[in-house]
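Query structure, 98 tokens:
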């Protein structure tokens, strides 16, 4: 919304929107509590070697994935506006047997 107003030339309104959002983000920030040692095994993080072009997906899913990647790459701009990129993504589907 702030970007739209800025493009329309309403810079004061855009700044006001950004300030309100930034203030709200600071107030609603939660503390991150690390997992205790006994819960560490419940979290799994993998970085596969399969390129995105090898994935079989619908156009809608591809758009969503591209949006998440773009948002991550633009995290500096988001941070300047008091926002953060998505940090959690859950992908599920059949795995290839090797």
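Result returned for the query:
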């Amino acid at each position: 919304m702030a970007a739209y107003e800025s493009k329309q030339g309403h810079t004061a309104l855009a700044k006001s929107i950004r300030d309100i959002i930034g203030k709200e983000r600071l107030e609603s920030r939660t503390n991150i509590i690390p997992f205790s040692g006994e819960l560490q095994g419940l979290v799994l993080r993998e970085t596969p070697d399969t390129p995105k072009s090898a994935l079989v997906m619908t156009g809608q899913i591809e758009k969503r994935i591209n949006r998440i990647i773009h948002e991550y790459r633009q995290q500096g701009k988001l941070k300047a506006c008091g926002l953060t990129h998505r940090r959690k993504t859950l992908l599920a589907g059949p795995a290839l047997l090797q």
